[in-house]
Design brief:
Helix 1 runs antiparallel to helix 2, helix 5 packs across helix 7 and helix 6 crosses helix 7. The chain has a ten-stranded mixed β-sheet, sandwiched between helices. It is globular, with a radius of gyration of 22 Å. Helix content is 40%, strand content 21%. With 408 residues, the chain is an alpha+beta fold.
């Protein structure tokens, strides 16, 4: 994946200087918010330098080290260049933004408060960037708006391969693998405009908090150890990259994590671990191929294959959770259309340990590998299953969850 992050101090300082000198007619609250956030990013980068961090940023092939605020400013600056103002000068856009309900603005602003730096599943191609700029101008001057909106999902399993999807939990945009259509690019532009406008019209403040954390060196050690146990890699021989994230949970408590990634310079694959810096737990392990998506609409349900892959999934779950004598339950789970094709090409293996925690091992049928291992509390797993059930009903899918003993 491509992580868009404000991690270069020179970039941060340039943007901050631009905001100080600009004559754009942005609402004061929004301008102050952006200034504050960039100062926070600068302070964080200095903190990382003091900690003696390694490389920052998971991907070399990205849009540059620009985070959510930088990406937003790309749109703002482009709009201001020809109009003299972002919202006031473009009647088409202004009318569209003012049509947002208070509830919609509050939701968008609230989501932005808890979002980390935006992540994109892939970079835009050169041709897509050209069309993005052309469509941005038409969006502003002609009122050319998308017919639909970015599809917001609550779990990666809900991602629709031919739609632009946004997962709030990780602030990730999942882009179609195929060249994006004008409609899809417009959806992306529209999303940013609405989020910016909602932030500008809400009294939103974000505060960087100092919290007790596992050291970066320890986070790297824990990540490497767990990836070695589960995937059998030798992290010491690979390039290490680190992304630091801070956000607030639903109760307003500060959460921090390091996304530690290991990759070989000569290969396109990357292993990564999300390390909770409060307790050192590994929340998510992933195995990505930067040239190939995990998702597909063309894979058929094959229960025989599902059963064949079960021992491998169980082995990974045991390595991830530690020594387990037996499972409270184990299941195979997937979403499929009425024609028997997997909704996203993914099959999940669900394991519950004696303590009630769940481990989900995800298998990509198109790549033919286990690409992700996650842990959930009982409450989180119930919420996850509820989302899957709602998605199945909304998209007319079959949500299949079969106990392993039933399919053997």
């Amino acid at each position: 994946m491509v992580f868009m992050d404000l991690s270069e101090r020179k970039t941060d300082q340039k943007i901050l200087a631009y905001l100080r000198e600009t004559k754009m007619k942005l609402p004061k609250a929004y301008t102050e918010l952006v200034k504050a956030q960039i100062q926070i990013c600068c302070a964080e980068d200095e903190k990382e330098q003091r900690k003696g961090s390694g490389q920052t940023g998971i991907g070399k092939k990205n849009w540059g080290h620009y985070g959510k605020l930088a990406a937003v400013l790309v749109f703002i600056c482009a709009a201001a260049a020809g109009t003299g103002g972002v919202y006031a000068a473009i009647s088409h856009v202004q009318q569209r933004m003012e049509s947002l309900s208070e509830e919609e603005k509050e939701n968008l602003a609230e989501e932005a408060k808890y979002a980390n730096a935006d992540v994109f599943s892939r970079e835009l191609t050169g041709e897509e960037r050209i069309r993005l700029n052309e469509l941005l101008e038409r969006y502003q001057t002609e009122g050319l708006f998308p017919e639909r909106e970015v599809l917001e999902v609550s779990d990666v399993d809900e991602v629709v391969p031919n739609r632009v999807c946004f997962l709030l939990e990780t602030s990730t945009f999942y882009l179609p693998d195929a060249p994006m259509k004008d409609e899809q690019l417009l959806e992306l532009i529209d999303f940013y405009y609405k989020r910016d406008y909602s932030l500008a019209t809400q009294d939103v403040t974000m505060e960087y908090q100092q919290v007790a954390e596992v050291s970066q060196e320890e986070a790297v050690r824990l990540a490497g150890q767990k990836l070695k146990e589960v995937y059998g890699i030798e992290p010491d021989r690979m390039v290490t990259e680190i992304e630091y994230h801070q956000m607030l949970d639903a109760n307003g408590n500060t959460m921090t994590s390091d996304q530690v990634s290991f990759s070989a310079e000569t290969e396109g694959t990357c292993y990564s671990a999300a390390v909770d810096l409060q307790d050192g737990r590994i929340r998510v392990l992933t195995f990505e191929d930067r040239e190939q998506s995990n998702y597909s609409k063309s894979e058929w349900v094959d229960m025989e294959l599902c059963q064949e892959q079960y021992p491998g999934a169980e082995k990974m779950a045991r390595a991830y959770l530690g020594s387990i004598n037996g499972w409270g339950e184990s299941r195979i789970e997937y979403l499929a259309g009425k024609d028997g094709r997997l909704h996203t090409g993914i099959v999940n293996y669900i394991f519950r340990d004696a303590g009630g925690d769940f481990c989900v091992v995800s298998y990509s049928c198109v790549r033919g590998c286990f690409y992700e291992v996650r842990s959930f509390t009982e409450e989180e797993q119930e919420a996850r299953e509820q989302r899957n059930a709602e998605l199945a009903q909304r998209e007319s899918l079959d949500y299949v969850s079969v106990e392993i003993t039933e399919v053997r």
